Amino acid sequence: MASLGDLLRDWHQGAQAVARGDWDCALRLFSSVSEPPARVSFNVGCVHLLAGDPEAALRAFDRAVTKDACLAVGFLQRGVANFQLERFQEALSDFQRTLAQLRDNTAIDYTQLGLRFKLQAWEVLFNVAAVQSQLGLWAEATCSLGDAISKGPEGVRNDLDIALGQVQKQVPLQPRQVPRGEVFRPHRRHMEHLEPVDFLGKAKVKGGGFSLLGPRRSCLCPQALDVRGEARPRAAAR
């Protein structure tokens, strides 16, 4: 079984490989993590999407949401993979599950969990409309975009109006997803434990202070701690 230090090192180096666009290296490092947490499986899925392999991405996102049924962003990305595979009913189900995880909140900020991304309700509604447009459900897509407009900030109103015009002309939409190159990274304070190096040049974990054990969930519990010792994502005010 891999040590805590090995897991953190491979996770960190995999994220660095994603940042420089080295998909093969990133996949090799993330895949080397034995019994990966949901966030590492999520990372694998994102890299497969970047590499143009939505089938492999779908399998990775399946693993992520199986390990963490509250990982809303995992359902979002699985919906994108299903959309790319033209499995539109499955994509619609995934985006609807993403909305359910938002629990009527306007957003979930994943920054504190190491992903520089804020999941916005209006973007999920946009994706619902994108699937509905692919299925030829134009009236439903128009309604979903109306909901997106009501929940979106003023700065995105113009883009949503353009999308609404496309749907009214029966032009299908493409879904939104996590920005290119963004993946979960281990928390900085955890990486501080890897700074000392022994005489063989291998990073060592200092002391205790944190654990990788515990329930693997990311539900919206502002007071709770995540499995890997990090605060859970907070929902925006309703």
From TrEMBL:
Family in the record: Belongs to the NCF2/NOXA1 family.
Protein name as catalogued: NADPH oxidase activator 1
Gene3D superfamilies assigned: Tetratricopeptide repeat domain
Species name: Capra hircus (Goat)
UniProt-listed GO biological process terms: superoxide anion generation
InterPro entries: NCF2_NOXA1 (IPR051864), TPR-like_helical_dom_sf (IPR011990), TPR_rpt (IPR019734)
Keyword vocabulary terms for this entry: Cytoplasm, Repeat, SH3 domain, TPR repeat
UniProt-annotated location(s): Cytoplasm
UniProt entry tagged with the keyword Zinc: no
Gene Ontology molecular functions: superoxide-generating NADPH oxidase activator activity
SUPFAM superfamilies registered for this protein in UniProt: TPR-like
Gene Ontology cellular-component terms listed: cytoplasm
Highest taxon listed in the record's lineage: Eukaryota
